[in-house]
């Protein structure tokens, strides 16, 4: 059976626990925790999001924040020990924002619930048979953890799926299918709180049990910002840039692209989907509460720039098994 490209959005978690996997809930809970965001840093962030002291409630509110962080990073590069463009608080501001974003992603990741077996087992069987490629847009460990526990991501070149992370760290070379290997790829398109850079600047992945809400190690490989800045965040990470390069290769080799639980709001992903929607079959699996059938068909036709796709709408997308 030919490979397929499976792209999972936040709807996967929302179908299981809509409260926990709500981004606005995670942004708020981390913001309101006194240990995660100190008061002085909170005031500085608030000036960028302009939310009257309340937590940001969506990625759209992070637009100005991203611009300010980028400016601080630039000024940090051209400062010196004697004279600096920024105050101490300004110099530390990018780290404070990175910590907040990391804590939000960690909050979403640290969930003890599991996807139901009725959903997972057919997916496991399909991956074993086809070694299809998977890409995720969310930060949680629902799918990733299930695949690891099932032995489908054994690490290195041994698994049915690889993500380029081995004991020595991340390298694009570790994604090459050499020596007869025909594994599929697991692409963390928006990063993971498990990723971090060691003292030598090498990107690594901690194990799931190492991550806590108080972890001192902060990931810079997380895409949580206004949609207009996602490309620049991706471009700043060799890991994420590689995943996005491989996404196009995966779509190119796919017989079919299945878009699962994805809202369609990320233009950078939509451009990739539209580029391959005319050469590969596309199925969109989404919650039927997202809008009327006619409105959603029109939306996806405009997004994919083609009318040749199948839209599957379900009361509970975790009942889907037709991979």
Automatic annotation (TrEMBL):
The protein, known as: SIR2-like domain-containing protein
Organism: Pseudomonas fluvialis
Lineage: Bacteria, Pseudomonadati, Pseudomonadota, Gammaproteobacteria, Pseudomonadales
């Amino acid at each position: 059976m030919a490979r397929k490209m499976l792209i999972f959005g936040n709807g996967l978690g929302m179908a299981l626990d809509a409260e926990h996997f709500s981004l606005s809930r995670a942004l708020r809970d981390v913001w309101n925790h006194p240990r995660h965001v100190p008061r002085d840093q909170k005031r500085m962030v608030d000036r960028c999001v302009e939310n009257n002291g309340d937590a940001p409630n969506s990625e759209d509110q992070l637009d100005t924040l991203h611009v300010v962080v980028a400016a601080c990073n630039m000024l940090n590069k051209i400062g010196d020990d004697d004279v600096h463009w920024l105050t101490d608080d300004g110099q530390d501001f990018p780290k404070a924002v990175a910590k907040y974003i990391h804590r939000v992603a960690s909050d979403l990741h640290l969930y003890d619930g599991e996807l139901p077996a009725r959903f997972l087992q057919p997916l496991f069987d399909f991956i074993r048979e086809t070694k299809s490629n998977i890409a995720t847009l969310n930060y949680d460990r629902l799918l990733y953890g299930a695949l690891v526990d099932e032995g489908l991501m054994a690490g290195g070149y041994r698994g049915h799926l690889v993500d380029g992370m081995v004991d020595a760290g991340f390298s694009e070379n570790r994604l090459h299918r050499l020596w007869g290997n025909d594994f599929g790829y697991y692409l963390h398109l928006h990063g993971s709180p498990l990723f971090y850079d060691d003292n030598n600047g090498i990107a690594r992945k901690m194990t799931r049990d190492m991550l806590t809400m108080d972890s001192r190690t902060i990931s810079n490989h997380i895409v949580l910002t206004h949609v207009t800045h996602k490309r620049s965040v991706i471009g700043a990470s060799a890991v994420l840039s590689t995943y996005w390069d491989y996404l196009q290769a995966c779509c190119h080799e796919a017989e079919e692209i299945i878009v699962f639980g994805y809202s369609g709001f990320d233009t950078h992903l939509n451009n990739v989907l539209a580029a391959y929607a005319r050469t590969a079959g596309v199925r969109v699996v989404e919650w039927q509460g997202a809008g009327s059938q006619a409105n959603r068909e029109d939306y996806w036709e405009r997004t994919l720039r083609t009318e040749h796709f199948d839209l599957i709408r379900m009361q509970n997308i975790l009942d889907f098994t037709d991979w």
